[in-house]
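From the pipeline queue, job 12 of 40. The input is one protein chain; the requested action is below.

Action: predict structure.
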Amino acid sequence: MPIEFKNGYAFVIGVGGDLLDTVQNALGLSALLQDEKRCAYSHQQVITLTGGQANRQAILEKLAELAQVVHPDSILLIYFAGHCYKCSHSILGDSDWLMPNGYDINRLAQTAISGKELTALLVDFPTQKILVLLDCCHTGEAGEIKDPAFTLIKSALPTEILDFIDNCSGRALIAASQEGEISFSGSPYSAFTSALIEALSGLGSKRLDGYVYVADVAQHISQAVPRKTNEGQHPIVRLKTDDDFTISWYAGGQLDPDIKAGVVPLAMGENNQVTQINTQTYTDQRVEVNAPITDSVIVSGDRNIVQTGGEMSIGTLNIQAGAVVQLSTGLHALSELVQVSKEFRQAVIKFRSSFATVSEQVNLLGDYKDLHDLLHQLQFSCYNLIEREAPHFPEESVLEILEEYENNLENILASLQAVVGRTKVPAFEIEWVKEVALSQADLKGAVKNEDAKLLKGTLWRLKRLLTIQPPRINTCLNNTVHALHLEALVQALEYVQAHTENSALDPNKLSEFKDGLHVLKTKEVELGRLTNDHDHWQAVESELNRIEALIVQDLGELEMSWPDLQIKAAQLYQEGGLFSQEDWAVSLRDYAAALTLVLTETNPVAVRRAFRKYRHEAGNRFFKVDVDLKSLCGELREVSQPLAELLRSLE
C-alpha cells in the first residue's frame, strides 16, 4: 500500500512563452511528484505554475506562501524551467536573472527575478533541506535592448544562489548545463528533466530502501545527460559529500522501484494521458541528436493511460552487471575444469594460498561495504525520520509512524547482526552494533509506554553513533581496498591459463574462464587507478575544506596555501594526463588559472567567487571517484562465492 511522503514540498515552474516544452517538463515532473505509486507527495504540497501563470508576481507570492507552511523538518524541491540571463551594465555592474513568463528585458526589476532576490527569499525558509533544480534553456532571443550600457548573455544559473547553497548544510543545486553549453530540449522532455524523472523513479538508486537520495539523483543526472546528448551537455552539481538527504519515495514507500527497462518517460497531456515513444529527440538551435533511450521509466498513476511500444534494455546497467556475471562465470568454469583434468588441477593447487587470501580479503571488503551502507540506512531510514517526528510525540499519528520506523530499525539491526555473525572484522570495530540494539529497545519502549525520556535517549544514542562510526568504517573500507591484492589472483590465473593451451578441455568452459580473467584484469587496473585517485583527491579535499572554513573571514590562508595546493592538485588533471581532455579536468585547469590570476588583484569578492568555482568542481570530482570506488567494492564482492567454490573443489 502506498505511503504518503509527508514532509515533501515542491514548487514546479515551467515558464512557457518561447519555450513551450518547459510547460510539458513541469507538468510531467509535477505529476510524478504527486503520483502515489512514485514520489507520493501530497497534492496540497505541490505547487505548479506553467505558461501565463508562471509570471514574476505569482512566483514570488507562491514562494512567500511556501515559506509560511514548511517547517524545519520539511524537504523543499524547487524546479524552474525557463531562461536565465547574466546582465552586465557599465555602471551598475553584473547581475543574474531568472526570466518568468512575460518578462521584459528592458524592465527586469519589474518583470524578472534576480538571483539576489531569489536567494533572499530562500534564506527565510525554515527548512535546511532544499534542492534547487534549474533546467535553463540557452535557445531563443532575449529581445531588443534599449540601454547601450547594458549587455546580456545566456547563463546556466544565477551565481548568487551558490553562496546560499554552499554556506549551509542540507542544501543542493543541480543545473542542466555548464556555462557555454546548450541545454537540450526534447520530446516529451528535455534531456535534463528526462534524467531527473528517471532518478526520482528509482533509476540509479543504490540503497533500494524506498527513498530517493539527493546524491543518487545528482549522480544519475550527471551520467545520463551527457549520454543522452552525445556529450553535448554536462550538468552542474553543487552538493557536499556529507549533505546527502532523502527527497521522496521512488515507489510510494515500497522497496522495489519496479523500473520497466526501455520505457521512455511519458508525455503528459491535458487529460493526464501518457504516450510512450521508443526514441527521444534532443535538440538545440544548431544540432539535432536522435538517440534511443535505453534507461528510462514509466510515470505511472491511477489517472494515466499508458500505451507501450517495443522492448529495449538498460544498456549501461547491463554492461556493468554483465561484467560481474562474466567474472563469476569464469571462476565457476575454473571450478568445473579442475574436476576433469588432473594436470589442470595441479596447476591451480599451486596457487591455493593466493585464492584463499583474496577470498578472505574480498569477504572482508564486502562486510565493510555492508556496514557502510547499513549505517547510511540507519541515518536516513531511521534517525532522520525519528528526529523529525520527535517534537510532535506522543500524538497518536506520531506513535503510528514511530512504530513503522521501529520496524525499520529492527530490520537494520537484524542485517547488522548478520554481518557480525559471519564477518572477520575485528570485534572491537563492531562493538557499536550493541548500541543499535539498545536504541531499538528504547524506541520500542518509548512507543509502547509513550515515554519521552526513552525517545530522547534513542535519539541521543543514535546521533552519537552516527557521528563517530561512519568515518571509522569508511576508513576501514578504504584500508581494506589498499590491502586487496588482486594482482596476485591475476598472476595465478594467468599461470593457470598458460596450462590450458592445446588442451582437450571443454572449449566452452575454457572460453568462459578466459573471458572472466579478462574482466578481472580490467577490474584490477580500475581498482588501482581509483584507489590512487581517491587518495590524492582525499588530500586535496581536506585542504580545500580547511581553506573554505576560513575564507569568509580571512583570505590569507588561501593566499599562503594555494601555490602548494595547486601543484598537488594539478597532478590529477594536468595536460597529458589520463583524464586531461575530460570536461571536469579542462574546467579545473581553467578555474585554477583564474584563481591564480585573481589572487594577484585586490578584489576579495572575486577571489572568493573564483575559489568557490574551483572548490565546487574539485568536490564534484572527489565525490564521483568516491562513489565509483565504493561501487567497484560492491562488484568485487561477487568474486567471493565462486572463489570459495573453487577452494572447496581443491580439497
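Job complete. The first strand starts at residue 8 and ends at 14.
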